[in-house]
Structures
1.
Amino acid sequence: MLVMVRPMYRTRFIRKVFRRTPGGRTVIHFERRKKSPMRCGRCGAILSGVPVDERDRKRLPRTSKRPQRMFGGVLCPRCLAEVIKSMVRGKLGV
Ligand SMILES: [Zn+2]
């Protein structure tokens, strides 16, 4: 059955779920897709300290959105340590 849905539901961010009602009808429910967690830009590890929910990312203060260090919310701590070490090594010419 083809149904013209409200414009707000005509987006790929919203998932169609077919549910069987007690009366035997099949109805379409619209659900938001789950957001994927933020990942490290270098190794792809899941970043902790960064909210997964998009609304939390918008609503929270800036200091609650990612760790308060350089490349916080971009690189994982292990990659950051490696990057810093490589930068220091480059400066010293070792
Ligand atoms: Zn990493």
2.
Amino acid sequence: MRLDLVIINGTLVDEYGSRPIDIGVVDGRVAQLATPGDLAATGRAELIDATGLWVLPGFVDPHVHCRAPDHPEREDFASGTAAAAAAGITTILEMPIADVGVTSPEILHARRKLAERDAHVDFGLFGAGGSIDRTLIHGLADAGACGYKIFTLEVPPDRRRSFEGIMVTREGELYHALSLIAETGLVCAVHAENDALLRIGREQARARGLTGADAYLTAHPQAAEAMAVAWLVVLAEATGARVHVVHVTSAWALDLLRLARRRGVAMTGEACPHYLLFDEETARRFGSWAKIAPPLRPATDREALWAALADGTLDFLASDHAPFLPEEKEIEDILAIPSGVPNLEAFPPLMLAAARDGRMPIHQMVGLLGARAARLYGLYPQKGALQPGSDADLVLYDPAANAQVRINTWQSRSRGSARIFDGIAYRGTILRTIVRGRTVYQQGRIVGPKGWGQMVRPQRPGSDAGP
Ligand SMILES: [Zn+2]
């Protein structure tokens, strides 16, 4: 067999462990995994010698906001997926929040066209999950949505169009929305903070005259997250929907996820790098630069998140990459500043380094960065795996290099807002990222063209509408 690409002498590190291996690629897919030396003489178009390097399955980031097309100055599919490629992320799942929210198959189709024109890596698209119109919810699934997104809180008036169909603040509406989503078999990702408690928190912060980080931390207490998760535990069981809690931040919420599991409820949760690397001390030191929703928590919550990743209470990692420009973060009233931080290019490198520094076995971390999210969203083993037949999405990683986060070198247009990550020293670097057999990033440069990215569609339970 003639191969398009052969990678020799590397060490494959996946969720099952590590072993020396040669990889042969044909038509963008893994064709052969062989003992080192076996593929050296095979006919091929391109050869990569990975001596001394780890070969990892391309990462899957199931929670990204490129937000195209409404704010190209912050990010679009080109810059957002360039940032992903630089981080070894070969598939992003894009949230439906952009002007306007992805509320219909037509809007999803338009978003798909935009990403197919611009993206450097593969992508999936979430639909808005807050509708109680059966035709729209099923229509989004049939159009290839990778899942749905719901926000359980109100957003400021100027962002309402972007959140159209996504905000659901009342229990009854949430029940009906989740009942419809359950019919599709797709996952519903939920930002869980109770709107009423957030209002009370904001009033208390203002009444006490708090400013800066203290105001924001008071306005978004752990109780608001726990209360929303508690509802979801009940509503997931009552409706049968596959509810996934995004960016879990507190030990309280984790206990409620464990309660769901004990009751046999199909609920899952994710952790984000900022909640694992930072805590309230960072929130106080960086003020508006560290304003993320929910907020950074005390160190005890941070440690509880690491324990929950290790014991399986949390299912995988996600970036929640949220691009805003520095001038948008430089407003005096912290309660009025948009929440979120751009972080794609810090995310996998810092998580791999944390694992190697003793947080968890490296193979477990690699699974948390790809295979596990791919399974939940019905993309495995096309994505998240290096097996014969999988897409040839892979990362060449130099475990011996010493590196430092330098946000001024990032691909993200909102790089200037990522100050909480700037200057962090770490071990190991991503040298090269390959998507379906083609190199898209190599040693600091985007080398693949815009538009190489393709949409991924979930395999739906009980349907053959797979990829
Ligand atoms: Zn988000």
